[in-house]
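To whoever is covering the structure queue this week,

Two jobs came back overnight. Logging them here so there's a record in the thread.

Job A:
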Amino acid sequence: MSCPHVGSANLAKPSPTDNVYREDCTQCFDSIDDPAGLDVCLKCFNGGCAGDRNHAKLHATSRNHPLVLNIRRTRKIIERNEPPLKMSKLAIAAETESDRYDTTLTVKCLDCGIDNLDKEDATIAPVIDAVMKANTFSRKEEVKAWEQELTTCEHILTMQQGEPRKIESQHLGHCSKCDLNENLWLCLECGNLGCGRAQFGGVSGNSHGLAHATETKHGVAVKLGSITPEGTADVYCYNCDEERIDDNLGAHLANWGIILAEREKTEKSLTEMQIEQNLRWEFSMTTEDGKELTPVFGPGLTGLKNLGNSCYLASILQCLYDLPSFQQRYYGDKLGSLPSVSDPAEDLETQLRKLGDGLLSGRYSKSDSDVFASEHTPNVPHQKGLQPSMFKHLMGRGHEEFSTMRQQDAFELLQHLIKLITRSKHPAELGDPTQPMRFVMEQRLQCLNCKKVRYSSNEQDSVFIDVPMEKLPPEEEGQEPKYKPVTLKQCLDNLTASEVVELTCAGCGSKDGFTKRQGFKTFPDVLVVNARKMAVVNWVPVKIDVPVIVDDEPFELDEYLSKGQQPDEEALPEDESAKSNVPAFVPNAEALAMLEAMGFPRVRGEKALHATGNSDANAAMEWLFGHMDDPDIDVPLDLSGSSGGAASGGAGAADPEKLAMLESMGLSGPRAVKALKETGGDVERAIEWLFSHPDDDGADAVEEAPAANEGPKKEAGSSELPAKFQLQSIVCHKGTSIHAGHYVAFIRKKLSEDETSWVLFNDEKVVKVVDVEEMKKTAYVYFFKRV
């Protein structure tokens, strides 16, 4: 049957820069695997479901793009008498999509209602062929996941090697400083052989290669055991502190008499070891007696497929969508129709609602077991899992870390998502779903000499707790160290304990210092706690698994409520002369020396100590790792506030104390006012906003500043007592670095009227858990709900 739209549609094949959405709908998770299939627009390549929701029809009507390619995929039935081979991330299996699926293609016109246009039409056929060959969204992500992108660097390109000489084979057998005969790194500049850092899994190392690089400034080294005849090897630049590629490795090795063709690879590469390490961090999917944990299905019990190092994203999303505020904001009848946008995949509201429907509706929570196992290979059917490819791309766009396929810090992702969602527009009747996480911390400073006090407060959406680390005596020689368990109360006691900081009093001029203490001015409805368990081992920050004991039953936090200024306390002066006399900051000499010994410049060390209370080098180091990319990281600390006065015009509409904090960093005027307005008064996010909007002069913030008679903004959280909380969900991590290993989520779920149980969300696998105690001890992020 002919269609008038075919000739007039002016169809063109997708270019390499076009996104082709031919796996799942851009507005829901219905996909090519559903009975109705997916309709791919032949004009703009949007993917729309063809089933009862009919998002394809909505797209066709709104964009006047009636021609679509319907793709339906069905799984081939496979009889298997042996378990499938374990997939290795080192190579993509040769099995193709056509080996696993049957695919049916149909061309339709949604305007004319024709369901079977001629696929061989000269106008349509080349477009169909190009659509089916084009890389999809998720395919692009997978390719990045399997390959670690390495580049060369200036230190390799400009490297000056010493006089050519042949290093005799007997001198290639062990480190020049010790007897280690594995994990050996050859300095390409001078030919020195040094052992590497100790690696997870029993690979020894005393860091003599690093010591040589630090002493001589020779930055480039190659791992001897990783060299192959084909010219590949682990090349590391100590100056960049990154793995690199040396395009002239053969020539550089020949300078030391090492011929590539004669080499044989004898050790695992860094990439292989990282993959092996990640594979080891499996969370048990069996009970103590070896039985597989029971999968659970239903609303709120839908898994997320791992896109390749995306478990950090999946675990945080599961915990967020377990919160009532997220469920009400992004799922349900109150929301009305989806936003009418030209590209749904690029719209944050659409993608957040797509996730809400996918995770909460139960529509996609069903077993996916088309493989028939024999009686000798029992198979527990799990879910296929939703692919959050579009959301991952959207939330990471423009971000240096989250736009990559590398493993990331789950807590940093949480903060990033909160920032994105807070900046979005929200219907007045629904509000910002992150608001229940917000609360106010109050800090009290008291001069040791004049005893006068100053109180300041800061709105937050989470709290860090430093976990005390005390090694236990090893039970046997060579055993991995274990650490003494601590309670959550111990960590909170430390958080709110008094400490002495070195500041000069603005009131009396004393340099004796201040006592500093912080407490909760208000409590949130959802308390997010990040447990920091980091230590420096061989100059490398390493995550330490210290068990933190958390009660399963509700507990009170009343004792941590800040009492505020008492009647018998005298406040430090707030007049202009006192404001101009900014307390002088004297960095902790011992902590600063430790940071400098680690290689951090003095300016950065001073900034980190100022930001973290001037007491602990470890806390300062963590702050530095999180702020390495700050544009002003190397600008000397300036607390004078001389770079700008009070913001004009609308300055009175912003919190003067927060404005003063921004001014002390050289961030002032209408831009500072707008930054605070755009971020809900959060100083930290205001700073990020300012650096990410360098061209915004903030003029509209002055014009739109609210009238003074509107009154102050309502304080986040509540100070009502009792403040009783119960653990609701946890993000757990296994691995020695928060940027590697594996993340999962454990969430307390009501499975029926009579049963509430902990449920493990391990990517697409969702199972009921019998015992969660071990996981509670090694959690990384806790979500407590107020009860």
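Job B:
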Amino acid sequence: MRKCAAAFYITLGFVSLWTTEASTGSCNCAREHLNSLKDKCNHTEGVYDFACYTKYKKSNSLSVDGICEWKGDISTSYTLYTQQRICKCVNVHQKKGIWTSDDFFVSTKWNVTAHIIASSGDLSWCTYRNFSGIPSMMTLCGPHLKLTYKRSSGHLSVQVEWRDESKHFEKFLVEYREFNTTMWNKQQSKNHEECVLSNLKSSLSYELQIKCVPTKECVQCPPSEVIVVPPELTDAPSIQREIQDHIQNRLISPGQRKVVVKWEYANSEAVSYYNVTVRKASGESSVQDTFRTEGSSLTLILSYSAYNISVRALNSAGSSPVSSIAIEQMDEWRDSFGPFSVNITSNNSFSLSWDSSVSSVCYSVEWWTKGQIPVSCPFYVKQTHKEMGKLGTGKTDSIFQPYTRYYFFLHTRPYPVTCNIKNVNNSETTYGTAQAYLTEGSPISAPGNVSILNITQHSSVITWSPVSEEDLRGFLLGYNICVTEDNKQISFKVDPSINSYELQNLESHSAYRVQLSAFTAAGEGELSDSKHFVTNMTAKSTALNIIIAAVVVGIVLFLIAVHVSCQLLHRARKLLWPSIPNPENSNAVQKIEIGYELGILEPLNRQRLEESEGCDSSTVCVFKSIREASRLSSPLIARAGAPTTLLLSEDEDSPSPFIPEEITPPDTPTQVPTRESVSTETCPSDFNTTDSDLSSSFNEESKDPGGSISNTTGSDFVPASQPAVVFMSDYTTMEIFRQVTMTGIQGPSIQTVKPGSVAVHPGQDYIRQSYCLSSNPPGACNGADVFKPEITVL
């Protein structure tokens, strides 16, 4: 009985075979054969992740269906044995690198063992693997029945549909990772239907695997196949369009135009396809207005109506933002349209009429005004006229306003009965266009930008810009030009299609005034501002004006040249003939006069007295001067002058005497005089004496340089012989100034200070020269006399 049952199930397994690549090994379930395979097939390759499951069943049946899966190579031959009290062979098949067995019978009472043998085609090697399990612990829930996902703003929403086993688990697990990476992330759903992944990179692709969360009823939850989620489409396509009409392309019928829509997408590799939506601006719906294409362009044949075209990119994860472009109405080629007229009879009705040569019975009329969305209405009629607004369409209730221009299109459609548009592409042709007013009015503004150009002796050109449509308030019939000259006014009209006019037969050198206005059927509009101009003069008047202008310019240039020449001559005179200064008026060298030079020397000595330390009313000061004689233009003849010491003191009993020191030779040291050696001549203790007093004392000394001033004896002073100085002319003073300057440079500039004395800088070289010349008789100083005073504080 058992043998019959085994043969039955084996036969049933072969009948249900649906493998794409069946096992090639022999099905020998004998125990001895299996044991020999275990010992012989010790190879490690060819079988990976071998496992078996039992499928979930609704009822509590004693038997379930089992299935085994593993990973392997396509070129390898596999043999699967299942054993549950009996051994049987099961067919296998492969799909996407996963080997799966056919369903086999499993009893829930006994354990299940499965054996898999992998062998090469030439039987040079083989691999053995086995699996054992308890049926109640092998229940498989999954994989899912259907999965959908959608990406948006860095989020991924995963929607999962399960079979009946979904009632036995509450949640499922999503494993995901970036494409071509190894690390998996996991996130558990809040229910068994949806799971949302956050913080994803929009520009990257992701891989997903779905599996249920195991429960008591669903013990085995194998992961699903790896699902690749493409990147999120965050950018909108870039759209361009090309339009051709029947003038540019003769293959296109009049009333239609060829529109080629092209677009580009930055990450085109992530796009599966594009959706292009084409709709009329009037909002009239069509059966097909969306086109799906995998390319990057779409060619459409459209009428002259306005259209809105939008493009978006899509993939399995979602769609990109929509990019739109508008196709405007086209009414430039009015001459190619058929005869079509519109009469607005009231504020909610109008009548249409067209040529009888039209063979169509399906029409569509569109009307609009600037700034408004067009309104359309399809209709079926066999006549060549149609009254709109009295048929209860509800689309013309109080829509027409006075002084407003309305535009109309009449389209024909190739439908025999139903006139609603079925396909927006190549299903409509514009027959004619028209314009109409409910009520016309006169223009409320004048032509603008009036200009006068190309003025000659007898003509000029007037240009202007037209009046706007809103200000016309009717159909423009023309322009009225008013020209005035000396209270003479001429008016004439021009066509509405021109914006310039040439005035002819004008008087030369005459003033004119021009004004323009536009007019409609209701009357003339506002006049423009006056524009004045003067025609050119004759050639004779022009030549006279040129001569006068040339004379004036010549005079101006002559005056400028005279002024510049005077300036240049004045500068040349200064450079070529400089003025020679008079030495008598020069400040560099002055007359050497004794009285005048002593006047200069006296305040200098007084300043030195004030600058010396301690020279006040209670201090005795000794003044010492050394005269050194040198020639101005020859070597020195006289020996150095003896020093002179001046003792100043203030006593309560007697006034301070003024005692000059004994005149000694230069090699004799100077001695400080005693009180007994002081002469009866006194120097006032008050240093605020007048300059004349100090000057007289110095004059007395200069008059008697060899005499003794005090009772102290000393060597006599030998004066130098007088040098022979010849003054050749008034300019000899410059030579003296040069010699004085050279002598001052050669002489010492600062007197060495004796110990206990306060050093005082000597005066200028010129001062010393003045003192030498003023304090000696003629011939005493034949050169620069250097005056070196010393002040000793007692």
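Note for Job B: Confidence is low (pLDDT under 50) at residues 1-25, 621-731, 744-794.

Please reply-all if you pick these up so we don't duplicate work.
Q.
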